Amino acid sequence: MMMVLAIAVPAHAEVKIQEVTSDSGLTAWLVEDHSIPFVALEIRFRGGASLDAPGKRGAINLMTALLEEGAGDMNARAFARAGEALATSFGFDVGDDSLSVSARFLTENKDASVALLRAALVMPRFDDEAIERVRGQVLANISAEAKDPNDIASRTFDQIAFGDHPYASSPSGTEQSVSALTRDDLVAAHRAVMARDRIYIGAVGDITPEELTALVDDLLDALPAEGAPMPPAAEVTIPGGITVVPFDTPQSVALFGHSGMAQEDPDFFTASVLNQVLGGGSFESRLMEEVREKRGLTYGVYSYLVPKDLAAIYLGSVSSANDRIAEAIEVIRAEWAKAAAEGVTQAELDDAKTYMTGAYPLRFDGNGPIARIMVGMQMLGLPTDYIATRNERVEAVTLGDVRRVAAELLDPEGLHFVVVGQPAGLQSTPAN
């Protein structure tokens, strides 16, 4: 089965998405481009590190890092040499909500590249030598993160926000949990997340629909039909207040936020426009203007919506000297309250729309990014015409929409600030 939609990316290019279904029933989205003999393939498994078994935190992260460390009859070195000989590259990554597989290969080496990737996905070796070597790398990263103020702030905020949900802890695990993992734990982790009932596929490049459907089944047919059950939704309980984590540094790092908005919410586009005005990364944002430009309290301050699969939060970050971080927090809370009460101006709304619609086509700057975008669309349940209609949805946001959503979403009294450093005049406050 094949469905074709021609989607115009405003002012830049046209993306023709074909939805194809393999003989075994797997769906893939394809953008054919025969201008160069090259294919980008993106595969994602929903669930990611959130599927770690109880007491085995970090198992899926460690397992993912081992997928390139030998497969089938090839040890780690032989596997790497095989990929180099084919001019093929693979990437494996895992986060809270998904495990992603990225492959790039030449058309002439397609069959051999797919066979190599299949070995990595279906027959990873998990050799003892590779396990210990990669375990050492993971433990070194965990040790480094324990000394990084930004990582400390993130980990502390997650613990406050998500309680006993997997989101509350690092996907990398702890020194204790990772040190205790066995090969059997890694095999179980592989079976839990890499299953056919949670696969999303995107391909861009020199490949036909018929070739892609055959490739999909050849590559993925031997994976288990079902993986581990998904975790429940996270209950987001973020009290207003301040948590100070003492850390010996001349500059404090602050992560702040409260509950957010799911991406499938009808008001998400409005919230995105609101955030662009408030703190969305531009030097024209209110937070940047008030905290940096007018008062010189920081080099940068940002806010961003974080719509995870199982919870949604609204976060921001700022760094400032220990003797000035309290003032920065005061200004941020005041701007949050002002936006909640008044919304934004028409000029701010127009500027935000211009930026967001103009920047969007720049995301489609290569086969790999397009493949990743298509897979992300599938995971969110977006239609194949989303690319064509996305900017229209942004343009449709009105001043009244923004004011209504600002009043509903922004909670200045509910903001929680996690401050890592030696902030003058600040101390942890009890929950509201």
Summarize the structure.
With 432 residues, this protein is an alpha+beta fold.
What does this entry look like structurally?
- The protein is α+β, with helices and mostly antiparallel strands and 432 residues long.
- Helix content is 41%, strand content 21%.
- It is built from 15 helices and twelve strands.
- The protein has a seven-stranded mixed beta sheet with strand order 1-2-3-7-4-6-5, with helices on both faces.
- α1 packs across α7 (183-193) and α10 (286-293) packs antiparallel against α11 (325-342).
- The longest helix is centred in the first third of the chain and has 18 residues, at 128-145.
- It is globular.
Write the topology of this structure.
Elements: E1 2-9, E2 13-21, E3 27-32, E4 38-46, H1 59-65, H2 76-85, E5 89-94, E6 98-106, H3 110-122, H4 128-145, H5 149-162, H6 175-180, H7 183-193, E7 199-205, H8 209-220, E8 241-246, E9 251-259, H9 268-278, H10 286-293, E10 301-307, E11 312-321, H11 325-342, H12 346-359, H13 367-380, H14 386-395, H15 399-409, E12 416-421
Parallel strand pairs: 3-7, 8-12
Antiparallel strand pairs: 1-2, 2-3, 4-6, 4-7, 5-6, 9-11, 9-12, 10-11
Helix pairs in contact: 1-7, 3-8, 9-12, 9-15, 10-11, 11-15
Categorize the overall geometry. Answer: globular
Count of alpha/pi helices: 15
- Portion in helices: 40-55%
Backbone structural class: alpha+beta
The quaternary structure here is single chain
Uncertain regions spanning at least 5 consecutive residues: 1-13
Total beta-strand segments: 12
Order of helices and strands: EEEEHHEEHHHHHEHEEHHEEHHHHHE
Query: Main β-sheet: number of strands, strand sense, barrel status?
Result: 7 strands, mixed
Termini separation comes to: 55 Å
Q: Going across the biggest sheet, name each strand in turn.
A: 1-2-3-7-4-6-5
| Mean pLDDT value | 94
Q: Which band does the percent of strand residues land in? A: 15-25%
